[in-house]
Amino acid sequence: MPVKFFEATLSNFDAVFEQFRSEAPKNKANLILFVADKDPATSLSWCPDCVRAEPVIFKKLESSPDDIALLIANVGDRPTWRNPRHPWKVKTSFKLTSVPTLIRWENDTIKGRLEDYEAHLEHKIQALVADK
């Protein structure tokens, strides 16, 4: 089954997240991927860990036979992300410390997470999707 993608920015996250949550019961796995915005000069993320992890995550999810929803949440440009008062760093539901961060979201709570240093590891992505 194909992966259902949602994409959000800081400004539209709440509306996109509500749609993501409303469709969550239909899926075997619901994931949120927090990534850095693309640099307009290169069309690549300004975060090298995001550049490394994103293709591995997408490939792994797209090869899954299960219904999966993936909400891609763009954290902003480098100065926005570096701000210690970034909403997703202080928001109790996410408490982000790094990008990329891949979260398994189930029953309105975090069931698992992979952070920057492990978000590109296929076996960890597989375990997160399988909820093991």
Automatic annotation (TrEMBL):
Probable thiol-disulfide oxidoreductase that may participate in various redox reactions. One of its GO terms (molecular function) is protein-disulfide reductase [NAD(P)H] activity. Transmembrane segments: none annotated. Pfam families: TXD17-like_Trx (PF06110). This is Thioredoxin-like protein Clot. GO terms for cellular component: cytosol. InterPro entries: Thioredoxin-like_sf, TXNDC17-like, TXNDC17_dom. It comes from the Eukaryota. Keywords: Disulfide bond, Electron transport, Redox-active center, Transport.
